[in-house]
Specification:
The chain is α/β, with parallel strands linked by helices and about 675 residues long. It folds into 6 domains: about 5-85; about 95-200, OB fold (Dihydrolipoamide Acetyltransferase, E2P), CATH 2.40.50; about 205-345 and about 415-480, no CATH class; about 355-415, no CATH class; about 485-530, no CATH class; about 535-680, no CATH class. Helices cover about 55% and strands about 15% of the residues. The protein is built from 23 helices and 19 strands. The strands form 4 sheets. Strands 1, 2, 3, 4, 5, 6 and 7 form a 7-stranded mixed β-sheet that branches. A 5-stranded mixed β-sheet has the order 13-12-11-10-19, with no helix packed on it. Helix 14 (about 355-375) packs antiparallel against helix 15 (about 385-410). It is globular, with a radius of gyration of 30 Å.
Length: about 675
């Protein structure tokens, strides 16, 4: 029996996923959808009208094909429905809105980020109802700090679409928010909003948050250090608000960050604890059903306390199906179980398919299930303690191999000491979960909870110290950039290589070698393109000016703040395989010559109240560092071929510059509205 025959839900999942992906890149007209629906129904009905059993058996695949087409349409429809639910019509128009906070506000440096449901809009004296999610940043003052979930606000603002990727290879904020169901953002100052009322909104997430807070209060009785408390809260219930950036960096660079994200490892440990407890309570076989019900309910209670993140929902769904399968006396087919959980989750929220955590979680599980047995079989180990060590190594390698392409694609880094970290982190995190459960159970009896509490402190100290030590080792991470095509090739290499280890077929080996060759050639191609690269890049940054002069693999950065350059530029440097830049601080306005072109970078009031009979001719005029020049005065002194205003220039000043440039027939480019400015000069020979 083939893999597809053994895992029918995998085929259904693939069809659903294809429909979700198709919605992102294709537009199916109503007639096309109707035709596909008719084809699906027709294919499903054909086998029922065949009277001869031989034909019915041969054409049985038609029913499956019809189901797959139907599920493709279902994936398209659920994605379309999700987009309709999150659509926001009133954009780029200042008016009066009424909105209700649907989540507790998140405190930022200068504002409160409020996710709200906009319930209506005033058009004149008429109130028009609507129901659209949006993200509103309220200026942080004494009134904003008291905002809470359920508050109804009356406010006047202009909603806009979130900005996309402003820099080459930069973070696409608009796409990120769209996957979260938000397609409009606005900014509010203190006089622009008023608190109208407060609505009591009941939700499972609120109840889950209350349970989490109770657990955290119990943890506070341990009197842990700040880092120990943060790790314990993140490891057991997924609460990450107290994690410092430095602590997160320690776990990330050491390769142990996954233990701070509650997922399959944590749910698996809880499942084993529950099985052990309920087997002691219900030993008789006739109580197997009660054991299963209690186990499944307790698992979902744990998922509920963690706030129902996708990774926990996926793991809880899988272990629930495993528990039911064990109760029914059926051997669980793990690939089918994984497919069922993903199918159910995507049916409710198709946007999770594009969530990084969701993708990494499933890749890790599939890698452990598929790769781990093959890695483990490469070495025969007889002693039990050595066998345990080798199995742990195989699991770590399998998970790391499966998630490596995605980790390089999204984060562009690889922890070199991940094996060493996992040898320490996985056993310690497992012990911490066991001790935390025991401590919570015994917490009403302080004299009984003392021992697990004491051991919990020691285990947390040891975990943090070990991770910090690994982080400080030389060359803790390797930096590597993958594009989408290279991501696909690397997945192909891993899948067909392990298929070859399992099946020993020549075809799988050839596909592996061909994909690996193309992968290497793609890297060589990028190096070759960079060798001929000759560019001027002005990056988007709201506060600083960064001008990048690139010639082959060498580059120079002219910047007002060198410490902030890597944020907008580092991804582009990695994608082009560029060497580390030479930094030059822009203390004052300056004139540069690059590839025979004159570049005037204006960062101060050098030309303020200056006049000239013959304007200075330049190829590029770059205005930055938050200047507010008089457009007429400036363009009387300088006659550029292209005038560029970077993102630090105020909007009203950009509008003035644009208008004067149009009058003088000068090309104008505003980084704030169009993203980073990239100019390719004539290619140079290596």
């Amino acid at each position: 029996m083939s893999f597809l025959q053994r895992t029918p839900f995998f085929r259904l999942l693939v069809s659903l996923v294809c429909g979700i992906v198709a919605f992102q890149y294709l537009e199916l007209f109503s007639l096309t959808r109707l035709i596909l629906l008719i084809i699906a129904v027709f294919l499903m009905l054909i086998p029922f009208f065949l009277h001869q059993s031989a034909y019915a058996y041969r054409l049985r695949w038609l029913f499956g094909a019809g189901v797959m087409v139907l599920l493709f349409l279902m994936g398209y429809f659920v994605s379309e429905r999700r987009q309709r639910q999150t659509a926001f019509a009133q954009l780029n128009e200042q008016t009066l809105f009424v909105g209700c906070l649907i989540e507790p506000p998140a405190e930022k440096a200068n504002s409160m980020a409020c996710k709200m449901r906009v319930e209506g809009i005033y058009t004149g004296a008429q109130f028009v109802k609507m129901s659209s999610p949006a993200l509103v940043y309220v200026f942080k003052d004494s009134a904003a700090l008291y905002l809470k979930k359920g508050d109804v606000l009356l406010f006047r603002t202009t909603f806009q679409r979130p900005s996309g990727a402003m820099n080459p290879e930069g973070f696409d904020y608009a796409k990120y928010l769209a996957n979260k169901g938000i397609r409009a953002i606005a900014y509010l100052k203190t006089p622009e909003w008023k608190l109208l009322a407060h609505q009591e909104i009941f939700s499972l997430s609120d109840l889950a948050a209350k349970c989490s807070r109770k657990v955290l209060k119990v943890y506070e009785t341990l009197q842990l250090s700040k880092d120990q408390f943060a790790v314990l809260a993140a490891l057991t219930i997924g609460y990450k608000d107290t994690l410092d950036p430095e602590l997160q960096e320690n776990f990330s660079y050491s390769g142990a960050m996954h233990i701070l994200s509650v997922s399959g490892l944590h749910v698996g440990v809880i499942y084993l604890i529950l099985q052990a407890v309920f087997l002691l309570m219900f030993r008789k076989s006739k109580w197997k059903f009660i054991n299963t019900v209690f186990t499944v309910c307790a698992l979902w209670m744990y998922a509920f306390i963690t706030g129902l993140p996708p990774s926990v929902v996926r793991a809880t769904t899988m272990f629930s199906l495993v528990a039911v399968g064990v109760a029914l006396g059926r051997k669980s087919q793990i690939y089918n179980t994984i497919s069922v959980s993903a199918f159910v989750i995507l049916l409710f929220d198709p946007n999770l398919l594009f969530d990084v955590g969701f993708q990494l979680s499933y890749c890790a599980v599939i890698g452990i299930v598929w790769f781990q047995p093959q890695i483990s079989s490469l070495l025969y180990v007889k002693p039990k303690w050595l066998k345990w060590w080798w199995n742990l190594t195989a699991v770590s390698l399998a998970a790391q191999i499966a998630t490596l392409p995605l980790a390089l694609y999204y984060f562009h880094q690889f922890p070199n000491y991940f094996l060493l970290a996992n040898y320490v982190a996985i056993p310690l995190s497992t012990l911490i979960i066991y001790l935390a459960v025991l401590f919570l159970v015994l917490s009403p009896f302080s004299w009984l909870a003392f021992v697990p509490g004491f051991l919990l402190k020691k285990m947390l100290f040891l975990l943090n110290a070990s991770v910090s030590f690994i982080h400080d080792l030389p060359h803790a991470i390797s930096v590597c950039y993958l594009n989408l095509f290279q991501l696909f090739l690397l997945f192909t290499v891993f899948v067909f290589f392990f298929s070859h280890l399992e099946s020993k077929t020549f075809r799988s080996l050839m596909v592996t070698l061909c994909a690996l060759l193309i992968f290497l050639l793609s890297h060589i191609s990028v190096h070759n393109q960079t060798l001929h690269l000759n560019q001027l890049v002005i990056y988007a940054d709201r506060k600083h000016t960064h001008v990048n002069l690139i010639s082959g693999h060498h580059q120079r950065i002219l910047t007002t703040d060198s410490s902030m350059t890597s944020m907008p530029a580092s991804n582009y440097w990695m994608s082009r395989k560029l060497k580390n830049p030479e930094y030059e601080r822009l203390h004052a306005s300056c004139l540069y010559t690059f590839q025979g072109k004159k570049i005037l970078i204006l960062t101060d009031s050098l030309l303020h109240r200056k006049t000239t009979r013959t304007p200075i001719k330049t190829d590029f005029l770059i205005i930055g560092n938050g200047l507010k020049p008089c457009a007429k005065e400036l363009l009387c002194c300088v006659l550029p071929r292209i005038c560029i205003a970077d993102q630090s220039i105020p909007a009203w000043c950009v509008d003035q510059l644009r208008q004067i440039c149009q009058e003088k027939r000068i090309c104008f480019y505003a980084v704030a509205t169009r993203g980073a400015f990239i100019y390719d000069f004539k290619q140079i020979s290596p």
